[in-house]
Amino acid sequence: MEQQETLLQYFEWYLPAGGGHWRRAAADAPHLAALGFTGVWLPPAYKGHQGQADVGYGVYDLYDLGEFDQKGGVPTKYGLREEYLDAIRALQANGVRVYADIVLNHRMGADEAEEVCARKSAGNDRNRDVSSAAPITAWTRFTFPGRRGKYSDFQWDWTCFDGVDWDDKHDVPAVYQFEGKDWDDQVDGENGNYDYLMGADLDMSAPKVIEELDRWGRWYLETTGVDGFRLDAVKHIRATYFTHWLQMLRQASGRPLPAMGEYWKDDLGTLTYYLDQCGQVMRLFDVPLHFQFHRLSGAGGSMDLRSLFQGTLAGTRPHQAVTFVDNHDTQPGQALQSWVSGWCKPLAYACILLRQEGIPCVFYGDLYGIPHDSIPPVEALPKLLLARKFCAHGTQTDYLDDPDIIGWVRQGESSAMAVVLTDRSGGSKRMCAGAGMAGTVFVDLLGGQKERIVIPENGTVDFPVGGGSAAVWIPENTAETIHRILNAECAF
């Protein structure tokens, strides 16, 4: 039986900046494989403008993977180039594919400033100018003196960008569009045109920019040997750019190079339109499903659970959905904070790990906790991961027929699993585990329900669940196997 895809986002925003994360990932590889992860999304590996304090999204030099003395030191926040490459090799040696975080929208921390003619754009309508063209001083020259032309002698200047958000000449923040430039099309329509996000915004219509990004993509793939990509901020970059970039790399490498894009919008129609516009060359993170979990966690039991998967990618285009509960942007203190409450995490993870729709992506902060905010790990998560590995196979039968208690059954060739969840008081859901399971003893893997259920001859029985919780009913012998694995992993 082929193992199902299960991804892990292997970082959270407040990881310590001691440069040890790549070593941690390498050492963790056997443990991650044992839990059933088939892929790991590693954080941006290149030098950011804040040096070792940069999480990786303030990109300064894509070619500096922790090799050159730039921005205050040699390592990135996560370590040195060779440690990064060692982590990739260690994960792959354990059967875990590596997804690299690709950030191509902007550059930050330029080495020199230039005088450029620019117009101010209205903050809520980038298609409308609020000033005439005038000289500003923009930080747009990237010469990378610490790297001295190694790997690429390309240097960036203002002609590579559409605009910036700071005039150093007058110390005035605003969105400035350079004279003679247009914001890219095929981007999100928020603020009229959401090409501009931050820093020096790349001009994706400039041939020399495209050529350099292509050159870098081939170099990066050959250097690292990663298996796929997580694409950052795709709603700010013309959709057909990634059609070109991914197809170019797939053809050059002869490898499938799966990609998952971050299009941050709680609107199914926008996401499906983008998928069609880019030629379906990637999957997208299921942002609407995340917000359903967020609403569920704060609804006080008033949410109609029958609607949980409505308006989501998982419910509409499951083969193009990467499902998730939280990530580095939604965690407390971040710009897109929409944290799913702790009581709701087991329910949400049961939905993404134990159903057949989408490829689930687990958050590092849920697996290992977030010490910065005293947030503990989700205790049920290792059990849910192993339930996916051993039991989440075969036909799925849904029982999404009650506003307060829903469930589903997975029936494989030699096993079955019944999942029940509620956001209100406890109860039960009558479901069929299959006549083939007759006489089998089922137990709740999560431990909330202590009774043992013997499946009757017709396979149909009431599966109980406690209030505001999930219950995962599986054969007792499989539960014992999972507990043995977890006990062994405790010594890891």
Characterise the protein shown here.
By secondary structure, this protein is an alpha/beta fold. 25% of the residues lie in helices and 25% in strands. It is elongated and about 80 Å long. The chain is built from eleven helices and 25 strands. An eight-stranded parallel beta barrel has the order 1-2-5-13-14-15-16-17. Strands 6, 7, 8, 9, 10, 11 and 12 form a seven-stranded antiparallel sheet that branches. A six-stranded antiparallel sheet has the order 18-19-20-25-22-23.
Strand content: 25-35%
Tell me roughly what share of residues is in helical segments. Answer: 25-40%
Rg value: 24 Å
The CATH class designation of the largest domain is Alpha Beta
Unreliable stretches, pLDDT < 50, 5 or more residues? none
Strand order of the largest sheet: 1-2-5-13-14-15-16-17
Structural class of the helices, strands and pairings?
alpha/beta
Shape: elongated
| CATH fold naming of the largest domain | TIM Barrel
CATH level-four homologous superfamily name of the largest domain: Glycosidases
Number of helices: 11
How many strand units? 25
Any guess at the CATH architecture of the largest domain? Alpha-Beta Barrel
What summary fits the major beta sheet? 8 strands, parallel, barrel
Global mean pLDDT: 96
**Integer count of domains:** 3
Determine the oligomeric state from the structure: single chain
Termini separation comes to: 27 Å
